[in-house]
Design a protein that fits this description.
Helices cover 40% and strands 17% of the residues. By secondary structure, it is α/β, with parallel strands linked by helices.
Length: 368
């Protein structure tokens, strides 16, 4: 099968990591796979396996996520059996791509994806109606599609995000990283891994941490880059938390920080399914997160993770308190349950197989 994956830019976000994972997995299973981006480069560009065909439409990076010069010619050159649109801008083009293939290659399917909790622009909504099929990455996202956007239920498949990173790191590596950040064996490390965008709301995590008891031995680690980082660093300084809050920057592979941390914390205002939380679960971390679309599907609510009503800082801190006091036995039991849930539910082989099974059905003409 010839598969074309469309993505605007290979920045360090969760959707972009999923695009790279899927492209490499499809290629490894013998499918001719092309990853097409609008903008060239990006933090993840160098992570592509050699077998994956990669093409960028802009001859140089204009900084415009929506600018896709020569898109039709690129599709024609790829002659795909299936086009998978990933990310916001790519999905805005799904309507145009569907119109193109209907006229020239009526057997080619165009699959849109719902991977965001943000309000959808007009062109995205139009694409959802026009696409051959839609993949939602959580059951809550599927409900949003049917309830808010009128997409027929039989046109939607739920395929969760896949685990991207390896789930092992040595104790020595974790201990060295903790020591590097000034943490001792008894320090409780609160971790968040996400791009610094306003909707990811790292500011709220810093403000939550500011209300933790001064007598507690804790640090907050924030891994990632993005436009909101500078303001978050300033906020941490203003609140007197420069020694408590660590900004780790972009990590190509965050496996060591998962291994070194104790609790995953998340305050994002906009999600469909949090890649960070499922990765944290796969490494055995308990999770505390504000309510957002798909959050409750990232862990076992009330057992390995806790969903907190939005902006309820008291409830968030109250949920954190018992995790600070876990015995080694209780922590190990919780970690075992978290790892088992995540590594089964979000297993990459399982998710890739679900995509390919859907693609084969669409190619065979099984469409609503």
């Amino acid at each position: 099968m010839k598969i074309l994956i469309v993505q605007d830019y290979l920045r360090s976000g969760g959707t972009e990591r999923q695009s790279v994972l899927l492209a490499q997995a499809f290629d490894a299973q013998g499918h001719t796979t092309t990853l097409l981006t609008f903008r060239p480069g990006g933090a993840l560009c160098g992570t592509l396996a050699p077998g994956v065909k990669y093409r960028a439409l802009q001859p140089f990076d204009t900084g415009l996520d929506w600018f896709a010069p020569g898109l039709f010619n690129a599709v024609e050159a790829a002659t795909p059996d299936l086009i998978l649109c990933m990310g916001r801008m790519a999905n805005c083009y799904a309507f145009t791509l569907r119109t193109l293939v209907q006229d020239r290659w009526p057997g080619t399917a165009v699959v849109a994806t719902m991977r965001t909790g943000k309000a959808l622009p007009y062109f995205f909504r139009r694409s959802l109606r026009a696409a051959t099929h839609v993949v939602a990455n959580s059951h809550e996202a599927r409900t949003t599609l049917t309830r808010n956007y009128g997409v027929p239920a039989d046109k939607i498949s739920v395929i969760h995000n896949s685990l991207v990173f390896p789930t092992s790191a040595t104790r020595d590596t974790a201990a060295a990283l903790r020591a590097q950040q000034g943490a001792t064996a008894t320090t409780t490390i609160l971790l968040n891994v996400a791009m610094f965008r306003p909707e990811k709301n790292q500011r709220e995590l810093i403000q939550l941490a500011a209300g933790l008891p001064d007598s507690s031995d804790w640090q907050l680690w924030l891994a990632g880059e993005g436009p909101a980082r500078a303001a978050c660093e300033q906020l941490a300084a203003e609140l007197g938390l420069k020694k408590r809050v660590r900004f780790l920057g972009f990590l190509r592979d965050p496996t060591p920080v998962y291994a070194a941390a104790d609790i995953a914390v998340h305050a994002s205002a906009s999600e469909s399914l949090s890649n960070f939380l499922i990765e944290a679960q796969a490494h055995g971390l308990p999770c505390i997160a504000y309510a957002a679309q798909g959050i409750g599907e990232c862990f076992i609510p009330g057992r390995t993770g806790w969903v907190i009503p939005r902006d309820d800082r008291t409830a968030f801190r109250n949920a954190l308190a018992p995790l600070f006091q876990l015995t080694p036995t209780a922590r190990a039991e919780l970690a075992t349950a978290a790892r088992a849930y995540a590594r089964t539910t979000f297993d990459p082989d399982r998710q890739v197989a679900a995509y390919l099974e859907l693609f084969n059905r669409l190619k065979a003409g099984d469409r609503p």
